[in-house]
Design goal:
This protein has 268 residues and is mainly alpha-helical. The protein has eleven helices and four strands. It has a four-stranded mixed beta sheet with strand order 2-1-3-4, with helices on both faces.
Amino acid sequence: MPSPPLVVQFRISHYNEKVRWALDHKRWPHRRRALVPGWHFLTARRLSGQTKLPILELDGRVVSDSTAIIAELERLRPEPPLYPADPADRARALAIEDYFDEVVAPEVRRLFWSCYLDRTLACARMTTAGRGALSRLAFATSFPIVRPLFRRNMGIDTERVANARARLPGFFDRLESELQPSGFLVGDRFSIADLTAAAVMSGIIRPPQFSYPLPEPWPQELVDLRGSVSHRAGFQWVLGIYQRHRGASCEITDDARYLDDHHGRATG
């Protein structure tokens, strides 16, 4: 029996949320291994030869990059589909995925992290959520040293953060302009376009159904940022897509549960 897929991930990242969502959408039992941002480099490089997450281990192979991972999942398990069957619709859906991945996601990430970087303890709680107090203490102790690396890697400085804030209304404009009468971005059913747009915008919107809630309290900057776009139709659309289509997690935590699932028995 093949081993279940393993997602090596960041809990908080919208790119990683894309892959979790795709696996859950396809009801594909999988494992997750969460790494701490800034501590992940050696593991990621050992597994894949590069330092970005998510990484998928599947049948002895390693695939990196959320778009490539979802393409492989779609090839191996095409039902329920994330790619539209119609060639024109598929091309449009993939173009929307690319826009939100390449244009919107880096700016949303920049805005999200800018709310945390000057708050060492809040940043430590956020990055080490799900781990013990020792991990939180170790991160908080080392973070003042590595903070410049985070700033450089994500392009977080006064000018670029201000530019990202200025561009944010335009991202909502684009999202809202793509909406079809069906309520989806392409055609009349949920697709990779909807999944990607909602997952990327979740970096600010933080829907209740997001896989991992942020530790409370949130930085006031993030609360204010979220509030500044909460009146947008695109904001409500993201909440609705999450509510209707995020679905239950298919993460498995032990072999017995995996065996039960593959034999058609309830797993709890």
